[in-house]
Amino acid sequence: MKLPEKQITIISGHYGTGKTEFAVNLAFAMARDGRKTALADLDIVNPYFRSYERTRELEREGIAVFVTSNFGKADIPALPPDIMSIFVNRQQQSIIDLGGDPVGARVLGYYQPQLDRVDFDFWFVINQKRVENRTIEGVVRYLRLTEAASKQRITGIVNNTHLGDETTAEVILRGDEFAGKVAEVINLPIICTVGEHRFEEKLKGRLNGSFFAIDRYMTKPWELSDHEGGQFAWQQET
Amino acid sequence: MAIVYRRSKGLTDVETHYCPGCTHGIIHRLVAETLEELGVLGKTIGVAPVGCSVFAYDYFNCDMQEAAHGRAPAVATGIKRVLPDKVVFTYQGDGDLAAIGTGEITHAAMRGENITTIFVNNAIYGMTGGQMAPTTLVGQRATTAPLGRDKSHAGSPIRIAEMLATLDGAAYIERVTVTSPANVMKAKRAIKKAFELQLEGRGFTMIEVLSTCPTNWGLTPVKALEWLNENMIPVFPLGVYKDITKKEA
Amino acid sequence: MAKELWKGNEAIAEAAIRAGCRCYFGYPITPQSEIPEYMSLHMPKAGGVFLQSESEIAAINMVYGASGAGARVMTSSSSPGVSLKQEGISYMCGAELPGVIVNVMRGGPGLGTIQPAQGDYFQATRGGGNGDYRLIVFAPANIQEVVDLMQEAFELADQYRMPVMMLLDGMIGQMMEPIEWKKPPVSPDDLPEKPWATTGTKEGRAPNIINSLFIDPEACNVHNKRLEEKYRRVIENEQRYETNDTDGAEVIFVAYGTPARLARAAAGLLEKEGIKAGVFRPVTVWPYPYEALHEVALQDSVKAIVTVEMSTGQMVDDVRIGVNGVKPVSFIGQAGGVIPTPREVANAALKALGR
Q: Does chain B touch chain A (at least 3 C-beta pairs within 8 Å)?
């Protein structure tokens, strides 16, 4: 896929769509492309499976990480003052990982004056295997609720249809078809279709969106991955 | 021979445990008569408290639930939300309602829970043996206030009727007593009005009944009535504190 | 039906509605707030009652009242909130009221942390309230199992007239997994009659009384003996457990919930190192499957039993009861929201085997 061109890319979607996995992978892709990158975890909805949990890996690759107060560990949706820098710093491209539903999208209301002054994209991640995303009407309804709550317009669709461990190429392909229909109905571009590297060969040339290959960082504590270590950032430090 | 007095159908044929002269007996009868007269005994569920009236479930001739101390309004909420067409009431004392259960009664009133609460205030903990209640008068002796309630230490009595009347969810709140036949008649009218409003679905209703506890007060039943009139009523004035039907008149 | 991705907390709420539950009372607390949130939207759509109570104490007493009035009813909370519910749970057991209580456990004691833990095992299995009582406690380890057990939880609650607890660690509540809805939804109209419920006498029967007060010691003793007899029947009939690769294993991990999955991963690591490891997973932690565990431990091949918990060691007491000295029992655990890694768990097994 073509990496973001704008100063800020906001990523939203219902929890379980895999927006956080996408946000973390996008940050890595941008950093590896030689860009100065920041990731702001502004998820005020989910207590677990947050992008800040990968802080160590992200910072190792030079990505600046911002997180809601107390490093996200408290269930208090307090916004950090230092996040303001992402709106000011034009030398850096930033990703905002929003909480996974219209409630989580409310946070953008706080930053409306800042967003008025920068170029940004607002991408909506969908996963057809989530109940709320089951139908086109469902997705559109959710998308519009997210826009209403955030007071911003969504500018692109990311298809991240998956079933966790049980994902198949077929599942992704169906999701891509579905995303194509959604995009048509609401007249928005498909930014990409997301899948693990292992699906790349099978899906080549069969997708509406360009393929964005990801590694899985948001693993469950029993899932053995290349990123050996616990679930949580502060555990990895030990 | 004409029958001039009989047991209300709203009461079971059981001898109560209350001390002779205790006003619980009168208040039970007023509630029972009301349920009988309104023809709702068969669709009423009562909730008994913890306190002297803990055995109320044996005395009222309708379905009953016994609640944990102070939780009667929450239990009644559970019942009423499941069975909105039934009549649900709680019968609670001052320890149950005004101390340990202040949160539950306040929020039931706040929600406008369509239930009726009979609040029996006798300014003392009867069941456990005469300890201080939140409604104990300043200077009144209790086993946990041996020199009398000290305002600087234990504060002043809580006025529940006035407090709950500030809540929009409260439909009818009146404070009555049963120290004379006239007062008993007034109390009956208040209780009946509360249940009638519940039947109309108007919201939370509570009748606070100033009551005696001759045994723990250390007075004869007659002296206890006098003591109530002279000492309690000045602190807990009788009257209607909330009546949503008034606004409409 | 095709699989869908569900979050544990949402799934448990939906599963309750599908089990015919039409009544929910609760209070928000992380990490289970998705349950009341889901219920607030979907329970009214199903024609049921959702009410956010003023406290956990009020919530469980609303459950008491609603259950007494004959409803299939549920509440949910997380550890500190479940502590507040203990009074009501004891009263429900005393008054023999059915109901389902969900505990999505976080780290404690006190306020602790919002991260997943299993420190409420004693509270759930020994009873955190007063008196001699028990709860049936299900401890599912994946979201499919959560939804499959939910209907059974309500059925057993009604059958035995006692509360059933779903004991999840926060990870199970917060994570996403693909599931399918295997059982058809239960209509509230098809639930068994509850002739004991307080629904009004219609002046045609003697009053029903829901009560836990038995002031006469003889009567209270008789009541307790009757409850004991009921619990004995539960112990006989309702033990559930799962074994994975325990036949001929050298080391047996015993774990419930998330640690059972860590143990499976650890067993995989050990297999690569030439050690056969199996996992014994109680699905009910009360009644505890003592005999089944004992049978597994008795195998000649078994050299060590390793208990894995997200606590400082609670279920290990039950493991010791079950194993009853026939094999050495050791423990590996982390508490307060820290989750042991599969490597740590595997290393604990190696240590227990003296390697």
A: no
Q: Which of C67, C203, C212 sits opposite B42 (nearest CB)?
A: C203
Beta carbon pairs, A and C, within 8 Å: 84
Q: Give the pLDDT confidence of B31-89 residue by residue, as tens digits.
A: 999 999 999 999 999 999 999 999 999 999 999 999 999 999 999 999 999 999 999 99
Whether A166 sits inside 8 A of C178 (CB atoms) is: yes
Give the distance from residue C50's alpha carbon to the nearest chain A alpha carbon, in angstroms.
20
Question: What is the rounded end-to-end Cα distance, in angstroms, of chain B?
Answer: 44
Burial of A91 (0-12, 13-18, 19+ CB in 10 A): exposed
CATH at C158: 3.40.50.970
Residue-number span of the structural domain to which C263 is assigned: 241-352
In a domain, A115, yes or no: yes
Record: contact B42-C201, CB cut-off 8 A: yes
Is residue C57 less than 8 Å (CB to CB) from chain B?
Answer: yes
CB A130 within 8 A of CB A161: no
Task: Tell me, yes or no, whether C55 and C161 share the same domain.
Answer: yes
The shortest CB-CB distance from A130 to any of C5, C113, C116 is to C5
Residue A236 lies in a domain: no
Both tokens assigned to C272: 């690569």
Residue C45 has what pLDDT? 97
Cβ atoms < 10 Å from Cβ of A143: 21
Find the residue in A nearest to C338 (Cα): A235
pLDDT digits (tens, 9 = 90+) for A46-75: 888 888 889 999 999 999 999 876 666 777
Instruction: For residue B198, give every residue at least 6 positions away whose Cβ sits within 8 Å of its Cβ, in sequence order, or none.
Output: B87, B88, B89, B114, B115, B116, B205
For the segment C282-294, the average pLDDT, to the nearest whole number, is 98
- Whole-number Cα distances in Å, C124 to B243, C9, C141, C302: 46, 19, 16, 30
Instruction: Say whether C209 and B57 touch across the interface (CB within 8 A).
Output: yes
Cα distances (Å, whole numbers) of residue C94 to C60, C87, C208, C215, C286: 14, 11, 15, 13, 18
Q: Do B83 and C199 touch (CB under 8 A)?
A: yes
Cα R_g (chain C), whole angstroms: 21
Please count the structural domains in chain A: 1
Please check whether residue A162 touches C, CB under 8 A. yes
Q: What is the mean pLDDT of residues C75-86?
A: 98
Interface of C with B in 73-102 (CB under 8 A): 73, 87-88, 91, 95
Question: Is A193 part of any domain?
Answer: yes
Residues 6+ positions from B107 with CB-CB distance below 8 Å: B73, C53, C54, C58
Whether residues B83 and C49 touch (CB distance < 8 A) is answered with no
State whether C200 and B60 contact (CB < 8 Å).
Answer: no
Can you state the angle between helices B24-37 and B181-199, rounded to 10 degrees? 40
Q: Are residues C56 and C41 in the same domain?
A: yes
Do A222 and C262 count as a contact with CB atoms less than 8 A apart?
yes
Q: Which residue of B has its CA nearest to C71?
A: B82
Does a structural domain hold residue C200? no
Locate the domains of chain B by residue range.
Answer: 24-248
Domain of residue A46 covers 8-224
Number of structural domains found in chain C: 2
Report CB contact under 8 Å: B86, C211. no
Neighbours of A113 (CB within 10 A): 8
Residue C202 lies in a domain: no
CB atoms near residue B155 (< 10 Å): 11
Specify whether domain B24-248 bears CATH 3.90.1150.30. no
